[in-house]
Amino acid sequence: xxxxxxxxxxxxxxxxxxxxxxxxxxxxxxxxxxxxxxxxxxxxxxxxxxxxxxxxxxxxxxxxxxxxxxxxxxxxxxxxxxxxxxxxxxxxxxxxxxxxxxxxxxxxxxxxxxxxxxxxxxxxxxxxxxxxxxxxxxxxxxxxxxxxxxxxxxxxxxxxxxxxxxxxxxxxxxxxxxxxxxx
Length: 183
What we know:
The protein is an alpha+beta fold. It has helices at residues 3-19, 80-83, 86-104, 170-178, and strands at 26-30, 35-39, 44-52, 55-66, 69-77, 107-113, 117-118, 126-138, 141-152, 155-164, 181-182.
């Protein structure tokens, strides 16, 4: 390959690398198909048992990391015993929110009621829809999260953008959490 062609190829590759986006947005089903979310990268599944308000429940995740930020959707299918007891249901849902605060050992900046876009044919009851912003520390680094917690039918769903204060921009976090809709 001649030197000018090689130089041209190197320049072209450098230009393509410079143009490659940090985020590669894609709308996908999440929470085992309970909702649709626009992820900034291809999510990977994960699952673990969590203790929430005295109950050990399986929490399934769809996690999309971008640099050191994490964009995640978590889902717990609630057992009938919790769903049948309004006081216990509220206790579990409140604890689900508090976990987000505890993970950052942080300060709740705001908590507000929101809505969820649901398709007209979606008959699942929306029992809770809140948005939270928390600022704190992760591994001794100032970090923040923007999250939403939904009680939709028999599922508690959390949608969270979490990252370093100097890396996760508000627009990207809002794009992610505000993209949620139920079909």
